[in-house]
User: Which sequence fits this backbone?
């Protein structure tokens, strides 16, 4: 795929499905408008739980997750997709966090390795804009936090002529964003769940999602993108990830996917982002295009 507008966007997330469940509408919009959108997928998602019926079709969980990512790649038009191949770390404080091959362990013990890999992608792909998770990693997943912190550092280092990396030349992307979560809707949803007797600090299939912490770690929105007309593509990409419930129960986006489509278009047709660089003068929505001001 070639970019017809010359605009290039890089998404840096942790797992196969993050690109679809979290940012499928955003990606679909910019690809449709002629931008080239690349994707860094840091792990193979092998800690994900998959249905028993699928285990007979593949040798490993990683094979399932990467096949689903390939499906979503074709639906969304991602190019390139760079998989780093780390093991999934599982949720924070899981025993799997201590696996030397997992992303969180690698980030805690050899951070320079992950940073270099991201700088390599940035210098090769030369994106104008980069999007990654917020500081809390969306819902506190250690892999999300690791790729967010590493991407933030790589954003600055990629253009530094003093940061040497064989075979590359310095390249400075122009804008850095953190993906946001529709806080008002999430708060209404959590209030409703509380009234139904759910403990919002222990939700999800494994009761390891703390939605109160998600609310506590929301960041200001500076950029609001209209993605309402791209819901069909967004849903088709999410549907690729059959093993993960097609977005219906995954992370903070699951509750959105469960809404009737007309209501979903109304409440989540706007995609919010926090602009980290260039730093906004004040915390309010001041743009509606992540390529605004890009040279």
Assistant:
């Amino acid at each position: 795929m070639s970019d017809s507008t010359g605009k290039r966007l890089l998404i840096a997330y942790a797992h196969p499905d993050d690109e679809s469940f979290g940012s499928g509408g955003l990606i679909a919009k910019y690809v449709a408008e002629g931008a080239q959108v690349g994707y860094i997928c840091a792990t193979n998602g092998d800690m994900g739980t998959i249905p028993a019926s699928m285990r007979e079709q593949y040798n490993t969980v990683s094979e399932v997750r990467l096949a689903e990512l390939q499906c979503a790649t074709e639906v969304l038009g991602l190019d390139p997709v760079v998989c780093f191949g780390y093991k999934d770390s599982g949720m924070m404080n899981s025993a799997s966090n201590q696996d030397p091959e997992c992303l969180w362990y690698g980030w805690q013990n050899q951070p320079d390795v992950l940073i270099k890999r991201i700088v390599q992608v940035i210098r090769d792909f030369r994106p104008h804009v980069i999007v990654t998770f917020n500081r809390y990693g969306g819902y506190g997943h250690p892999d999300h936090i690791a790729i967010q912190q590493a991407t933030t550092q790589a954003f600055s280092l990629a253009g530094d002529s003093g940061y040497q990396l064989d075979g590359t030349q310095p390249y400075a992307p122009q804008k850095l964003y953190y993906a946001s979560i529709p806080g008002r809707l999430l708060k209404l949803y959590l209030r409703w769940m509380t009234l139904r007797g759910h403990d919002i600090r222990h939700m999800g299939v494994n009761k390891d999602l703390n939605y109160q912490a998600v609310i506590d770690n929301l960041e200001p929105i500076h950029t609001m993108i209209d993605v309402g007309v791209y819901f069909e593509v967004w849903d088709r990409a999410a549907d690729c990830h059959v093993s993960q419930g097609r977005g219906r129960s995954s992370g903070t986006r699951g509750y959105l996917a469960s809404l009737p489509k007309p209501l979903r278009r109304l409440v989540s047709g706007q995609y919010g982002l926090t602009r980290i660089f260039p730093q906004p003068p004040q915390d309010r929505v001041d743009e509606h295009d992540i390529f605004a001001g890009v040279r």
Summary: The first helix runs from residue 18 to 32. The domain at 8-181+219-277 is CATH 3.40.50.10320 (Rossmann fold).
